[in-house]
Specification:
It contains no helices and nine strands. It is an all-beta fold.
Length: about 120
C-alpha cells in the first residue's frame, strides 16, 4: 500500500498495527552500529524518527510515506525513503525482538541487524 501504513491485523501478537506506536531499535553492526533510533508511525502514513544517543537526542525527522506490512506471524516489514536519499527497510520479529535492516541509496547498500522494543 503506497503512501499509507497498513492496518493488517492478521497477527494479533504483533500488536495488529504500528500506527500510533513508537518502536526503538538499536543496530549492532553496519555504519550506525551501536546507535538507537525511535520511530513513531502515524495514521496518515508518515513516520517520525530520531536518534536518541547521548545527552542530546537527534533532530526529529518526518517522512511523508512509510509502509508497514505483516509478512508472517509475529513478523512485520517497514520501509520508507528518507529525505537523506536512503531507503530503509527493516524486518521486525516480535518473537525474539530481533531485527534485520537494509539501507541503500544510489551508491551504497548496507545490511544491518540488531534488536528492538515497543515503547508506547
Amino acid at each position: 500500500m503506497s503512501g499509507a501504513a497498513s492496518t493488517d491485523t492478521r497477527s494479533p501478537a504483533t500488536f495488529g498495527s504500528l500506527i500510533g506506536k513508537t518502536v526503538r531499535w538499536t543496530f549492532e553492526d553496519g555504519p550506525v552500529a551501536g546507535k538507537t533510533y525511535e520511530h513513531t508511525f502515524n495514521a496518515d502514513g508518515s513516520v517520525v524518527y530520531r536518534s536518541i544517543e547521548g545527552t542530546k537526542p537527534g533532530k526529529t525527522t518526518r517522512e511523508k510515506q512509510c509502509a508497514v506490512d505483516s509478512v508472517g506471524e509475529d513478523v512485520v516489514v517497514i520501509s520508507y525513503l528518507a529525505s537523506s536519499g536512503y531507503t530503509l527497510t527493516v524486518i521486525l520479529d516480535f518473537r525474539d525482538h530481533r531485527m534485520v535492516g537494509f539501507a541503500s541509496n544510489e551508491k551504497e547498500w548496507y545490511r544491518q541487524q540488531g534488536t528492538f522494543e515497543l515503547c508506547r
